[in-house]
Amino acid sequence: MEKTPLMSIQPYFVLDSDDFCQHVLFENGISHFFSFSNKTQEDITVPLLTDGCSNLLFEYKDGAVRTHFVGSTMEKRTFSVKRGAEYFGVRLAPGCAFAIPGVPAKETVGKIFILDGLDFARDFCAAMGRQKDFDSRIQTFLQEFPVLCGAGKKSGEKQKLFAQISDIIIRHKGMVKVKELEKLSGYTSRYINKIFEQEVGYSVKQMCATVKRQFLLGDMHSGKAGSLTEIASEYDFYDQSHFIHEFKDFTGTTPSQYAKVIEEKKYSENVRNV
Q1: Mean pLDDT in the chain?
Q2: Which of 58, 108, 193, 241 lies 20 to 30 Å (CA to CA) from residue 18?
Q3: Is 1 exposed, middle or buried (0-12, 13-18, 19+ CB in 10 A)?
Q4: Which pTM does this prediction carry?
């Protein structure tokens, strides 16, 4: 069966920064590459919504580069976008982990690590720092990242099961119960959760919730979403009140307020696909 792609979104990089562009890939565990800048005279605090993804953000400023590894965002947090800086980002696909040697996956969730000073990543960061434009950064990343991750690493049965269940969750847009996953996979929820904790550091239930929210946001940004009542029904909320409560918990604002912001700021027009 063909896989259902999910391009996980961090919308405030589009709404609050400048010159946002992206290149969608959906290969080798990568969702997409993106870049943006901060042309203002002050640092910007950008909200990060739960995306279930690992992100690498390269900050180019004053001839130097700083490499941020942003662990899977499972609760709202923020990222400081420096004034006058240019950023190149890589969002790994949901369920695809990037391991820091000696750090369990669970300890990377919601954390930001600076990779430049870590021995295992020093050459990789230096190679990325030498690149001056979007295309060369993509090509260098595609060449260097598999080496950093260990290109010859074998995928065992646990990793295969993890990938299989992640794909089921994405095909169902997150609207699948853990009990259903037990039946579809033949494994207990306890074992499934153990694998998710080991591979990405969060539970299968958390991934379901995050995938559902990300598909919902994608529909709103693309204009595919109907009325708020229709969205609540399509995404299996008990009622509109439940939808509003969960959406506000996720984004910090109500669905109607959020829809107004993306319309006023012309979200789609501010995303340049290359």
Answers
A1: 90
A2: 108
A3: exposed
A4: 0.91
